[in-house]
Write a structure and sequence with these properties.
- By secondary structure, this protein is mainly α.
- The protein has one domain.
- It has helices spanning 35-43, 48-58.
C-alpha cells in the first residue's frame, strides 16, 4: 500500500480552500423555497474560506499558517 508511508502525511493537515470574491460564494438550495426562506439561506451561506477567516479573527492558534 502506497498510502501507508509517511511521505503521504502532512502536519499540520492541509486543506484546499476554494477562493471566491466577496459575496460570490456558492450557495446550494432546494426548489420550492419562498423568497423569505431563500433570503435567509443566502444570508447564512458560508464557504470554507469564509469560515477560515472567521475562525482566525477570534482564534490566534491558526494565524501562524499562511494560506
Amino acid at each position: 500500500m502506497l498510502l501507508e508511508y509517511r511521505i503521504h502525511e502532512e502536519f499540520p493537515p492541509v486543506y484546499h480552500l476554494p477562493v471566491h470574491l466577496p459575496g460570490k460564494q456558492p450557495v446550494f438550495f432546494t426548489e420550492g423555497l419562498t423568497r423569505a426562506e431563500l433570503q435567509i439561506q443566502l444570508d447564512q451561506a458560508h464557504s470554507k474560506l469564509m469560515a477560515w477567516f472567521a475562525y482566525n479573527t477570534v482564534q490566534a492558534d491558526g494565524r501562524q499558517y499562511i494560506y
